[in-house]
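Hi U.,

Before I forget, here's the chain from the pilot set. I'm dumping it here mostly so it's searchable later in email.
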Amino acid sequence: MKHLFIFIIALLFVGKVEAQKIYSVNYSSQADVKVYVVDYESQADLKVYKVKYESQAGKNDGKWYFVKYESQADVKIYFVDYESQADLKIYFVDYESQAGWKNNEKKHLMY
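Structure:
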């Protein structure tokens, strides 16, 4: 019984870490990460592809699914107006295969 309990807890933790379910908050104080959308791919820390279904969300690989409710999110972000305010700079890509990290030093922000 003890092993079953540990296994269930481990599954819950692993599921939490792997999914990239994102919620965009209204105020910077509510956010886990402040994000700035850059104009050019070369300026980005992370290239993001917005997936259509939750099941397509990646494992911290730039495939984001935007949830409708804050309680469903793994990471809460706030889109800032200026690059200097951002923890993370992203660029939205058109194809899933383009998604991914360009600056691995920032990867910890999305866990």
